[in-house]
Amino acid sequence: MHPMLNIAIKAARRAGTIINRASMDLERLSVARKGPRDYVTEVDRAAEESIVETLRAAYPDHAVLGEEFGLQGPDQAEFQWIIDPLDGTTNFIHGLPNYAVSIALTQRGQVTQAVIYDPTRNELFTASRGSGTFLNDRRVRVSGRTRYHEALLGAHWPNSGDPEQGSARFRQMAEGSTGVRRLGSTVLDLAYVACGRLDGFCGVGLKSWDLAAGSLMVLEAGGLVADFDGEQGWMDTGNVLAASPKIFTQMLSSLNPPSAA
After folding, report:
1. CA distance 158 to 191
2. pTM, two decimal places
3. Residue 201 belongs to a domain with what CATH number?
4. Which of 139, 161, 177 is the last residue of a domain?
């Protein structure tokens, strides 16, 4: 295993310990609002501080970009860590056990190492560029399902909890599949695509810390990742499709139907 991946695993597990301890006493949790439907707790901040401390102790010349504290370290560093200390904060504060820690390493802008850790299930997803994706040391692959009407999708788009009320652009995608799930944690959505629990994922307006680790996992597990035009601008736009190859093609087609002659 790559030494930088080992450090990321160590950091993710430490953050997971902080999160698990806090989950035992949610009534004492201090919650602040960052924006509409966007919350932050002292647990998010403590977890991020723990991750940054672990990463920078091992690699003091690396930069770290975190959801809570922004960029720390050199602006033009060759290596940059991208972290989400607690993706699924709304789930967490409600006691819904669907949230995770996400840590990715980029080298000159390319994601090379990735860790997603689900502390409630003790599930550790890892990936290194060129070496595959693993769940608790077992190699995983994207789903082999090919029929779109049998595909189960994850989603993060407006009103994706209710496809009938969602954006018209996504309605055909939702209605053509067997179902759409909004789990409340994008990093787990992507990890689940990588290990075949979901056949595809569609997200709108996401941030780099939502996408960096999970995107590498999907790719290393044999899947495809692109923006809504089938291009590679998803990290900039935050609009992303990720799926097994057969399902990806059909998701993309449903978003971009041929115009009438």
Report:
1. 21
2. 0.91
3. 3.40.190.80
4. 139
**Residue 216, annotated as binding a ligand:** no
Query: How many Cβ atoms from other residues are within 10 Å of residue 247's Cβ?
Result: 29
102 neighbors 116 (Cβ within 8 angstroms)? yes
> Is pLDDT above 90 for 251?
yes
C-alpha dihedral sign at 117, 104, 143, 253:
positive
229: annotated binding-site residue? no
Is residue 10 domain-shared with residue 107, that is, in the same domain? yes
Give the residue from 147, 169, 144, 149 showing the smallest Cα distance to 159.
169
> Is 199 marked within a binding site?
no
Burial of residue 126 (CB within 10 Å: 0-12, 13-18, 19+) is buried
Tens digit of each residue's pLDDT (9 = 90 or more) over 211-231: 999 999 999 999 999 999 999
Cα Dmax for the chain: 61
